[in-house]
Amino acid sequence: MRKWIFAALLLAVPNAAQAATVDPSLIPDGTYTVQIERVVDAKHIVIKMDNGMESAISTNRVNVSFDRLSANDTVKMSIIKGIVAVFAKQ
Fold it and tell me: For residue 29, which of 88, 73, 82 has the smallest C-alpha distance?
């Protein structure tokens, strides 16, 4: 009986792999189309990539600001060494 209850509980718990968070420094340099999950402030955002991975990413560029973005926006961005160099709202 306990095995069945345990199996039912495992099925009820959401799959943690679906919302895996990746360190921005591990993202290879390149251009990506992402969805904005949350805007933290003008220099920090949480994104969701096409492969389902989430990342809290930032910029250190003076001319790059995330203040005009909002949740669910689709953005094309260039990431270099884990930092957003430039982005364009789609």
Answer: 82
Residue linked to tokens 């001319």: 63
In the numeric block, the tokens 């949740």 are attached to 71
Q: Which residue has the tokens 């955002």?
A: 45
Q: Would you give per-residue pLDDT tens digits along the chain (90 residues)?
A: 544 444 444 444 444 445 578 999 999 999 999 999 999 999 999 999 998 999 999 999 999 999 999 999 999 999 999 999 999 998
Q: Does the pTM of the predicted model rise above 0.90?
A: no
Q: Which residues contact 48 (CB under 8 A, 6 or more apart)?
A: 34, 35, 36, 37, 54
Domains assigned to the chain = 16-89 (2.40.50.140)
